[in-house]
Every structure is written in C-alpha cells, then in structure tokens.
Amino acid sequence: MKINTEIYLGDSKEVLKKLPDNSVDLIFTSPPYADQRKSTYGGIHPDKYVSWFLPISKELLRVLKPDGTFGLNIKEKVVNGERSTYVMELIIEMRKQGWLWTEEFIWHKKNCFPGKWPNRFRDAWERLLQFNKDKKFNMYQEEVMVPMGDWAKSRLKNLSETDKIRDESKVGSGFGKNISNWVDRDMAYPTNVLHLATECNNKKHSAAFPEGLPEWFMKLFTKEGDMILDPFMGSGTTNFVASRMKRNSIGIEIVPEYYEMVKSQINPVELYLFESEAKYEKVKLNGRVPIR
Ligand SMILES: C[S@@+](CC[C@H](N)C(=O)[O-])C[C@H]1O[C@@H](n2cnc3c(N)ncnc32)[C@H](O)[C@@H]1O
Hints:
ten-stranded mixed sheet; binds S-adenosylmethionine
C-alpha cells in the first residue's frame, strides 16, 4: 500500500484552507494550551483562546469527512488559584459551530512527577475530547479490546436476577446491559479512561504526547489507507504513528524548527516549494514508511 505523509509549515488557520472538503478520516491533535509553554512556542491568553481556536475548528469541520472523528487533547490550567473555563467555553462554542461533542476520554498520566501544592494534588490527567460531524461515525471497537482482568472473577461471580436480563436504562438513553453475557469471556471493551505513561521517545519537543495516544485513536476510528490530520504537528508524533500504521497523514506546524526536525526525519522523496503562494512549503512522502 502506498502511504503519503504531507507536512506544511505555516499557521493552521491559513494552511487548512488549502485542504479539500470532506477529505480527512481522523483529526488528532494537541494544540498549545492557554498561556502555557510561553518560552517555547508562545501561548494564547485563556480569555482569547476560544476566539483563536474557532476559525481553526471551522476549517477542521469542513475538511473532516461526515463519518470522521476529531480527537482534541487539551487541559485547562490553573489561573489565580482556579481552573480556567476556556475548555468548557470552547466546547459550547464548537457545538454552536456545528460540532457534536460525542465523548470525553481521560488520559491518565500514570507516571506523573511527584509534587506538593498547598491547595491541590498532582495533575495526573488530561482531556481527550471527541467531536463528530454526525452521530454515525466510523468506529472499529474490536480493535481496542482489552483483557477482561482478574476483577471480573469476583465481580461477575454472584450475579443478581437483574444482571441476567437486559436491564434497560432508566433515563431513556436506549442503553441497556445484560451482565451475564460477559461471564467467562477473555476480552472486554475498554473504558473511556486511557492509562498511558507520559514517557515518550521524543525529547526534542517540550510537549510531545506519547505514541500510544494517537495510536489508540487511529485503531479505534480509522483503518489502513485512511487520512489523518494533525494541525498542531509539533514533533510529528501523529504523523510517524500514522505512517507506521499504514495511514496517510498531513501535519501542519508553525515553528520552522519543529517543521524542519520532522522534515529531516521523513526522508522526503518529493519536495514542493510554493514560494509564490505565501511561504508554505509542502513535503510529500510517497510510499515510504518514515524512520525515526
Ligand atoms: C502541544 S504541541 C504538539 C505536540 C505534538 N503532539 C507532539 O507530539 O510533538 C503544539 C504545537 O502546535 C504548534 N502551533 C501553535 N500554533 C500553531 C498554529 N496556529 N498553526 C500550526 N501550528 C501551531 C506549536 O508550535 C507546537 O509545536
């Protein structure tokens, strides 16, 4: 299978306009968090965050296929002793823009550093917001099944009568469960909490996420040959994982240093320079799996 990886240098807000409508199966990204990492790639003030992000999410909505998914890794920081609310405001505004806020996964950073604060404990989790264009989206649930675990031996041992019939949700959600169906099974569907260490191979970017994160979402929402987009590419984790998993991908990065770092790692076989059309440089990799 021929796999393409395209990377662009520039502001996502502008570069995304070059991508065709309904062309991406999964957007997976971690944008800069409000006011964080000022010393490296700048920060956006929490009060300005939503208005900064909305023009980008508008383009993302356009380029995502109707059955595609947008996975957004984000976390609000503490300002003046309080959590800021910009992530919640962003969710509300994105819904007005036309997105469905389908699910929220939690990334539990199981190896976060020890620390002591006077009024709070260690911050050990980040949000992974799932947005969709339509209620019907591609989801390959069998690809992320997990071993049932020892807990099931005791928890599923003494089932009540209601556990043996389909127990319809009382709130009318249409969900129901028959727990007895799961007795003696080896595998179960996972929860919406992902336990992943923050440890990652890439030390050249201060905010790279672990490869396991995009990998899990790619398994769940895409298949081989699909198109993945990371509009805040950073060190290219999403793109390298996509390539390893035989998915096509596009990455956009505003900082030349990070862009050059990724470019040097993907051994481009074709190089396009769009010098007349602003400063975007597009590197296309045809049929090669990048080597880190
Ligand atoms: C949190 S980091 C992403 C890290 C990435 N997930 C990785 O594993 O390396 C966010 C990245 O977005 C880039 N960025 C910030 N604003 C941008 C914009 N408007 N367009 C494109 N990239 C941007 C930053 O330079 C930074 O590298």
